[in-house]
Amino acid sequence: MQNDKRVLKTKTSIKRAFMELAEDKEISKITISELSERALVNRSTFYLHYSDVADVAADIDEEISERICSCIDDYDITDIYGSNYSLFRKLTNRLEGNALMKRYIISSTISDAVIARMKEVFVDKAIRTIMRKFPHISEKRLTYPLTYAAAGIVDSYVKWVRQDKPTITLEELIRDTSFITEHIISKITET
Question: What is the enclosing helix (H) or strand (E) of 84?
Fold first, then answer.
């Protein structure tokens, strides 16, 4: 168990150092030497945990994707306002709870991959939910409207988060995105 804690501590240190370095330089320009130095580990320790810098980036991407996509787990497309409220609150709390990760997501190129993954999960979840409630509607009929709705919800939230001083409150964002999404859902579920 003590060994597991050391491994976790070392990997956390390496990932933290990577995110810090990614704030000032392109991810592709980060070297193992500077990453090891920033993480206060030697190169051989680095290689015990990661094969290269891209491996660290992939590990961080996976962790971020899991954290953000887990917020979507409870999303119920048939309760748009309640689900949007829960989703946006969870995402905001997770981002505010880890300032380094928030800066990394907002300022690095990795954010595009995380956002794309979040949209995919959102669409899959929404399709499954609607098909359970309205079995007569085909997946083919749902895919594009739900892709549109997911992009709108996720991109609106991301734009809101990226603002230093948002022009609207989180509650206003939830209300507005819920209204539009409810309209889309009502149109595609009409018989």
Answer: helix 80-96
Judge if 43 and 107 occupy the same domain: no
Tell me how many domains the chain contains. 2
Q: Please state, in angstroms and rounded to a whole number, the distance separating the CA atoms of residues 89 and 72.
A: 11
Contacts 24+ apart (CB under 8 A), 133-142: 133/78, 133/189, 134/189, 136/191, 137/188, 137/189, 141/188, 142/188
Same domain, yes or no: 19 and 86: no
Percent of the chain topping pLDDT 90 = 29
| pLDDT of 80 above 90 | no
- For tokens 């690095």, what's the residue? 108
Half-sphere exposure of 117 (CA within 13 A, CB side): 16
Cα–Cα dist 128/134, whole Å = 10
Query: For residues 2 and 84, what is the distance between their CA atoms, to the nearest angstrom?
Result: 41
Residue partners of 152: CB distance under 8 A and separation at least 6: 177, 180, 181
pLDDT of residue 113: 73
